[in-house]
Amino acid sequence: MSIQARRRRERAEREKLIITAARELAEAEGWEAVTTRRLADRIEYSQPVLYSHFKGKDAIMTAVALEGFAELVGELRAARTGAPDAAGALAGVAAAYGAFADRHPALYDAMFRRDLDLAFAAEDSPAALKAGFEELAEAVRPHAGGDDLGLLTETFWAALHGLVTLERGGRLPREARERRLALLLGRFVRDGAG
Amino acid sequence: MSIQARRRRERAEREKLIITAARELAEAEGWEAVTTRRLADRIEYSQPVLYSHFKGKDAIMTAVALEGFAELVGELRAARTGAPDAAGALAGVAAAYGAFADRHPALYDAMFRRDLDLAFAAEDSPAALKAGFEELAEAVRPHAGGDDLGLLTETFWAALHGLVTLERGGRLPREARERRLALLLGRFVRDGAG
DNA sequence: CCAAATTTTCTAGCACTGCTAGTAGTGAGA
DNA sequence: TCTCACTACTAGCAGTGCTAGAAAATTTGG
């Protein structure tokens, strides 16, 4: 019994090790540098070990992305609950979202830019994913007026995502981030809400 | 003289052939299916010929993207100038942008999703790229009020881009596209403008 | 019209990728 | 101690982008 328990524990630890190594490598040199060989090297196991934990490279990226969702939720919540009013909450959440993308570009890529088969907005969506959306929705709620909250949240999220990704690819100069966010908020914030 | 002219012409034709083949293949099976071998096969030349035209695979993708910008400009312009008023123009441009992304997903990827070294918003930006932004800006202008037109256009563009890309990756259900666009427009359109 | 020079295109190969079949090694239970 | 099951390994496959050097084709000069 206990022996199997230890084995399970060790396996779980190694799985965590793989995820962490992948994330660090991606953050340091980009996802194209995360090869199964380099990853195996880094965790000091042979390549096939990776495949005993994950179905393939994509599954590893998905695991990293899930870690990211959990972290993002925390930061969004802190930004929202720490704000004095509804306008500040939306602004804070938007800024936190942008800051997260800046601080963890590779993580953000895995979460939102790559085509992974993560179920969004579905029954079997990972909990952290639903929680992240809920966090955004709570910040948007006071500004929804008569509009559908879910759809409005999606729209607001899309705007944030668009800003972040266009900046990442050099499509938009990064300097004006704050001013663009201000414009966006100006169009979404309902004065005297909440 | 004339011989060299013919050679130049033939080279240009083959270059166009490469771009078209890459685009078709990408649109049919996605960019990951566009390998130098398959591309060479398709144009009925050997692999190294590709490298006499383009620096590498990325350069081919960039060439495809440039084609896309020219087409997008045309569709945005048609949508804008065909609208009866300022609100209709913005709505039309937004719908045209979404429709373009739907109709040419691989093309859209090359233009906006991949990290290619295209100079956006710079001195040496390709003309079609500047023209595309201008087209958007003209549609946004009547709704800018006192806000900076360039920044507001960037923000609106980012929102469109966000919607389109999140839908592509399955992050947002596609059915509600129109309703999300309506919400976005509701926040950007200034009544009684232009 | 033919040989030399030049340009163009090809074959073959490099170092790498994700992934897997089959083998060697390790520890548990009888 | 012996057998068995499981784990992790080595080696290899088919594919990738890209390139060096040989072969073929074409233009030029005699």
Describe the model.
The structure is a homodimer of 194-residue chains. By secondary structure, the first copy, chain A, is mainly alpha-helical. Chain A folds into 2 domains: 1-54, Homeodomain-like (Arc Repressor Mutant, subunit A, Orthogonal Bundle); 57-194, Tetracycline Repressor, domain 2. The first copy, chain A, is 73% helix and 0% strand. Chain A is built from 9 helices and no strands. In chain A, helix 4 (57-81) packs antiparallel against helix 5 and helix 5 packs across helix 6. The longest helix of chain A has 28 residues, at 2-29. The N and C termini of chain A lie far apart (55 Å). Chains A and B meet through helix 8 and helix 9 of A and helix 8 and helix 9 of B. Chain B binds a DNA duplex (30 and 30 nucleotides) through helix 3.
Measured distance between first and last alpha carbons of chain A? 55 Å
CATH structural fold name of the largest domain in chain A: Tetracycline Repressor, domain 2
Gross morphology of chain A is elongated
User: Could you list the spans of chain A in which at least 5 consecutive residues all have pLDDT below 50?
Assistant: none
Percent strand of chain A: under 5%
CATH architecture of the largest domain in chain A: Orthogonal Bundle
- What is the helix fraction of residues of chain A, given as a range? over 70%
Please summarize the sheet with the most strands of chain A: none
What oligomeric state do the depicted chains represent? homodimer
Q: Quickly count the helices of chain A.
A: 9
Total beta-strand segments of chain A: 0
